[in-house]
């Protein structure tokens, strides 16, 4: 099972499609919740856990991209979030985390024009 993230109005190939299987998406979702919970609604947070086509605006995508990029730019801060996320998830998720995955998602978000989780 995976999470297919489709750009709603992509400005480049990087914004057309992003995919994580469930093992990689749950830690990413955790990072989004921890870093973006101040501007995402309860519904938006909940829907990140389902692949039913829920849509996020271009503004929300850009805001998530900015926040994740800020975190990824600071290795110490990113490591602290990684630790928190690994404490939240079962041990079986331990090896499903990388800065490269976060940066790839940031690139997608910057070019997607809004997205839906399918």
Q: In DSSP terms, counting alpha (H) and pi (I) runs of 4 or more, how many helices? A: 5
User: Helical amount among residues, as a percent range?
Assistant: 40-55%
Neighbour order of strands in the largest sheet:
2-1-4-3
SSE order, one letter for each helix or strand: EEHHEHHHE
Rg: 13 Å
Q: What composes the largest sheet?
A: 4 strands, antiparallel
- Shape descriptor reads globular
Counting DSSP E segments of at least 2 residues, the number of strands comes to 4
SS-based structural class?
A: alpha+beta
Low-confidence stretches: none
Q: Proportion of β residues?
A: 5-15%
- Average pLDDT number: 97
Distance between the termini: 11 Å
Task: Kindly summarize this structure in a few lines.
This protein has helices spanning 22-36, 42-47, 58-72, 75-88, 99-111; strands at residues 2-7, 17-21, 54-56, 115-117. By secondary structure, the protein is α+β, with helices and mostly antiparallel strands.
Structure write-up:
There is one protein chain. With 118 residues, the chain is α+β, with helices and mostly antiparallel strands. The chain has a domain at 56-110. The chain is 53% helix and 14% strand. Helix 1 packs across helix 4 and helix 3 (58-72) packs antiparallel against helix 5 (99-111). It is globular.
